User: Which sequence fits this backbone?
């Protein structure tokens, strides 16, 4: 740390020299008050804030232990390679619940399974081919790659054949003449903005495009379409479709819905601009009766305020195409790592650290809804809630949601993450789907700030597999989660809350 402090001091001298050349030969003098001065004094001495010197030293120990411990990596390997995809309601999801609960018991945590009821949708056959288009060789077909959207209804078993209408946006769709899509297949060809993702705004690019996946099927059904295709919400380059949930408007007929890769969307757009395109489409997913499932909850009891709770969490369910490594096996195992590190380092913070492996984030967040309902009376005792659900690339710091006062409160915590390049503090509107309702009630929410340039290349595809996780980045994420959780659980005063809704 000494070296970091010296570097910070050198940076301060440099900044002083460039920003007030005329008046300031020395470091401390009459430097005008303002944001720059504040930042500089923080660099020189970040202080210990709501923690003692010993507690700050514990944060450094936790960080270093996270960086040199392969517990999270081994757990991720088991969840992904041994158990596999963990779609809500599936036998693998049930197995994962059992496994994670057992692992948490082995660490000495107090484990409970919180019952929830989840959808049980299973993928079936999914094939498509063009049977008519401009320039076709007689007697041939052309394959179209696709995958059903989660929750999609099926086509007839033998499939359906219909003309494909391609629109780039909802605006273009609304501008079509009445009856233009009746009996047809609509392709919403809204491109995921790869340029946004390339500058680190992957979440924003996702937010812009995902509305077509969510609402496209009902919008098209309302106008008489018989099926919907959406251009994949993601940046994959290898003709990989990205699945994800679609949500039917209950007042409109449900029609089959699938995602096509960018390559197939481009091809369909080109051919449809040249003339009539007809597709034969078979999708045979099934929606089975809902099943019981569980949030896995494991408490590392607080030494003086066990009733006060800090959540650390990720979601245990995943899509079925890959093995759910980056979404969100990584979030689960870095949270497991928090409990593991408390045990390994013999730390017993004042407040309870509550690990939660949420169930059903992908198909409707039933697990989070159950938790919010069953713990409604205890929300005041929830002092903070980190969730990791934005992948597992290099974290550049901590993103929080809630009171702006959290930015200052976090300074000494973030300072301990500087050696791993994770000291930036950002206020974000969203930090995790599962903790959203807690955050809306005033509980401070946190998540590692991810490098999101690559996450959406694999998100919800068959390529979301163990190899996509860099062990060093996983360890860095575990360090951010563990240091943040410890800081929340052991501070002299709780993290500032917002008033909530
Ligand atoms: Zn996720």
Assistant:
């Amino acid at each position: 740390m000494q070296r970091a402090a010296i570097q910070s001091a050198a940076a301060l001298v440099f900044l002083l020299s460039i920003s007030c050349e005329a008046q300031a030969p020395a470091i401390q003098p009459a430097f005008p008050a303002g944001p720059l001065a504040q930042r500089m004094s923080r660099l020189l001495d970040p202080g210990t804030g709501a923690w003692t010197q010993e507690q700050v030293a514990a944060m450094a120990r936790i960080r270093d232990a996270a960086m040199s411990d392969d517990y999270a990596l081994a757990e991720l390997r088991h969840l992904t390679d041994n158990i596999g995809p963990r779609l809500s309601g599936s036998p693998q999801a049930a197995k994962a619940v059992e496994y994670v609960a057992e692992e948490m018991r082995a660490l000495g945590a107090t484990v409970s399974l919180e019952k929830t009821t989840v959808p049980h949708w299973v993928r079936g056959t999914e094939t498509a081919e063009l049977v008519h288009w401009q320039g076709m060789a007689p007697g041939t077909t052309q394959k179209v790659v696709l995958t059903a959207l989660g929750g999609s209804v099926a086509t007839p078993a033998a499939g359906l054949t219909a003309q494909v209408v391609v629109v780039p946006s909802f605006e273009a769709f609304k501008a079509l003449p009445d009856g233009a899509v009746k009996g047809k297949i609509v392709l919403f060809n809204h491109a995921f903005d790869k340029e946004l993702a390339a500058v680190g705004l992957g979440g924003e690019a996702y937010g812009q495009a995902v509305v077509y996946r969510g609402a496209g099927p009902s919008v098209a059904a309302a106008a008489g379409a018989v099926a919907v295709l959406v251009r994949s919400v993601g940046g994959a380059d290898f003709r990989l479709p990205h699945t994800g949930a679609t949500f039917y408007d209950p007042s409109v007929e449900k029609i089959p819905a699938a995602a096509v890769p960018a390559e197939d969307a481009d091809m369909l757009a080109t051919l449809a601009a040249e003339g009539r395109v007809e597709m034969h489409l078979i999708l045979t997913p099934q929606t089975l009766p809902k099943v019981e499932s569980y949030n896995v909850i494991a408490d590392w009891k607080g030494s003086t305020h066990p009733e006060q709770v800090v959540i650390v969490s990720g979601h245990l369910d995943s899509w079925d195409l890959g093995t759910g490594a980056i979404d969100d096996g990584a979030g689960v195992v870095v949270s497991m790592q928090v409990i593991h590190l408390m045990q390994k380092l013999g730390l017993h913070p004042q407040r309870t650290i509550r690990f939660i492996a949420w169930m059903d984030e992908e198909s409707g967040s039933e697990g989070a809804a159950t938790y919010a309902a069953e713990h409604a009376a205890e929300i005041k005792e929830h002092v903070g809630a980190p969730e990791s659900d934005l992948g597992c690339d290099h974290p550049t710091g901590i993103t929080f949601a809630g009171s702006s006062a959290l930015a200052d409160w976090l300074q000494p915590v973030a300072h301990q993450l500087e050696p791993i390049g994770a000291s930036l503090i950002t206020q974000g509107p969203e930090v995790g789907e599962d903790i959203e309702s807690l955050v809306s009630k005033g509980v401070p929410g946190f998540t590692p700030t991810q490098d999101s340039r690559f996450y959406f290349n694999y998100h919800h595809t068959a390529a979301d597999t163990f190899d996509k996780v860099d062990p060093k980045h996983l360890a860095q994420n575990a360090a951010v989660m563990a240091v943040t959780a410890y800081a929340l659980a052991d501070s002299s005063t709780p993290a500032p809350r917002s008033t909530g809704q």
